[in-house]
Amino acid sequence: MTSTKMPSIVHTGAEIRQLIHSAQLSGKRVGVVPTMGALHAGHLSLIDAAREQCDLVVATIFVNPTQFAPGEDFERYPRNLEADAAKLASCGCDIVFAPAVDEMYPQGYGTSIDVGAVSRPLEGERRPTHFAGVATVVLKLFQLVPANRAYFGHKDYQQTLVVRQMVRDLNVPIDIVVCPTVRETDGLAMSSRNAYLSPDERKRATALHDSMQLAAQLASTGERSVAKLTAAMEQHLNEVGGFVLDYIAFVRQDTVELVDEVTGPTVILIAAHLGQTRLIDNLVIG
Amino acid sequence: MTSTKMPSIVHTGAEIRQLIHSAQLSGKRVGVVPTMGALHAGHLSLIDAAREQCDLVVATIFVNPTQFAPGEDFERYPRNLEADAAKLASCGCDIVFAPAVDEMYPQGYGTSIDVGAVSRPLEGERRPTHFAGVATVVLKLFQLVPANRAYFGHKDYQQTLVVRQMVRDLNVPIDIVVCPTVRETDGLAMSSRNAYLSPDERKRATALHDSMQLAAQLASTGERSVAKLTAAMEQHLNEVGGFVLDYIAFVRQDTVELVDEVTGPTVILIAAHLGQTRLIDNLVIG
């Protein structure tokens, strides 16, 4: 590692805003990749996309307490700023904005953003305060880092809909770019939470993707019934074992509208507990 | 009226943002005055303040449906863009942003901003959806008109606290300037809703300010008890007659915390119905 390649690490809103402002005044296009750290190849693919499309690339690292409910994994969520900075350096990220919690939520903080219907079902039903926390922190980050483009991963499908809804409804002048899910060679979607899995759980975890692939195959050979596709997925997960299923849902692409039949572009959404770890994944079919 | 003095009237977000962006790129400081139109001398004093402190002055005119509850006066709220534009021209406003409702709230709109505790009591208790509507539309206007400073009147005291809370909590890069309430010569606070008053009601309406002045006098001569000051105000209002009181409240300045005694800077808040018209006013004492 050379010092010239390491990104600048900025901790205050005043400083990051000044840096972005200066860059934009000199005509630079700025891309931002909001993350909670614990970076993996999925995050780095977002940096790569930003690097390709923008002149200055900013990653934000902030484990946002307001998107975790009590009893979720806020406390144990992996944090390692130095390792993250080294990974970001390796793919040409220019600046890391890593605010402290009390920089983002000082005493007296009281505001929350509700994006409405798109945040209600699925993850919103299981994690009722989650998307308000996401929408609010993303809006805050977009005010502090007023980039031209922001990059999110498709793995958090409903989150991408929530962010798009918030940006559109609140007239935030930023383009949202959604990049494909990055997977391990055996198909498991990259996730910081994969680090929680035991070796045995790690092996079983591929069944999430495998079950969606199975549904995709059945759909491609003519099975339109979501009930039957879901049953096939559940059977596969039961055979592998170890899962407590939260939901399997088929929704019309770019929405959270449930469909009964696969008659066009459709997203399979799956959420399940494997031991102490909650995993989500999705796949576009049809 | 000459055409050179009339402000440009802009109806779309894309156009206003482009104008602001160009102005700021050329080093101009931009001031914005958000209004619902039906402009009076109070609004024009905000334009004057912006004119003094900024290089480009934008007024927004938008009767925001989401801050009215069903049964309130959204439908009959006075609208007269031409007269408003002429008034704005007379005090040197450069641009009027007057979006249509479906420009601000297109189909599929779903987002709302809740600023928490400061929005709950007083007006928030009587108008439970009001401040979410205010906070949301003001945030939207600040994204569309990313001015350096925004000007609000002290008459809507709790609104100024709500806007400050929203801007602070969401890291919106704009300075909020609160200007003094402008009054008619008999003391009645300027309000677009004064137009609803019958001649008889208009005469009685001065009792709101008179009663606060009475409390201010009693406080200045040693009466600290809010209960006694409130009783004196109520007695005065009863003597004048015609009012249905919503509330009289004494709060610590810059907060909505009720106080029992006037021991420092305190704001008297009053809200009352006079016939079909709901009026609010406030006065800083102590």
SSE topology sketch:
Two copies of one chain form a homodimer.
Chain A: E1 8-10, H1 13-25, E2 30-35, H2 41-53, E3 56-61, H3 81-90, E4 95-97, H4 101-104, E5 112-114, H5 123-126, H6 130-144, E6 149-153, H7 157-169, E7 175-179, H8 199-220, H9 226-240, E8 243-252, E9 266-274, E10 277-285
Helix pairs in contact in A: 6-7, 8-9
As for the CATH topology of the largest domain in chain A, it is Rossmann fold
Given helix and strand content, the structural type of chain A is: alpha/beta
Oligomer: homodimer
Spatial strand arrangement across the major sheet of chain A: 1-4-3-2-6-7
| Percentage of residues in DSSP E strands of chain A | 15-25%
Main sheet: strands, sense, barrel of chain A: 6 strands, parallel
Estimate the global geometry of chain A from the Cα principal axes.
globular
Rg of chain A: 19 Å
> CA-to-CA gap between the ends of chain A?
45 Å
Task: Count interface residues per chain for the largest interface.
Answer: A-B, 27 and 27 residues
- Would you identify the CATH H-level superfamily of the largest domain in chain A? HUPs
Helix content of chain A: 25-40%
Order of helices and strands of chain A: EHEHEHEHEHHEHEHHEEE
Number of domain units of chain A? 2
Proper CATH architecture of the largest domain in chain A = 3-Layer(aba) Sandwich
Overall pLDDT confidence of chain A: 97
Low-confidence stretches of chain A: none
Q: How many beta strands in the DSSP annotation of chain A?
A: 10
GO molecular function, one term (chains A, B): pantoate-beta-alanine ligase activity
Binding site for ATP (chains A, B): 36-43, 153-156, 182, 190-193
Catalytic activity (chains A, B): (R)-pantoate + beta-alanine + ATP = (R)-pantothenate + AMP + diphosphate + H(+)
Subcellular location (chains A, B): Cytoplasm
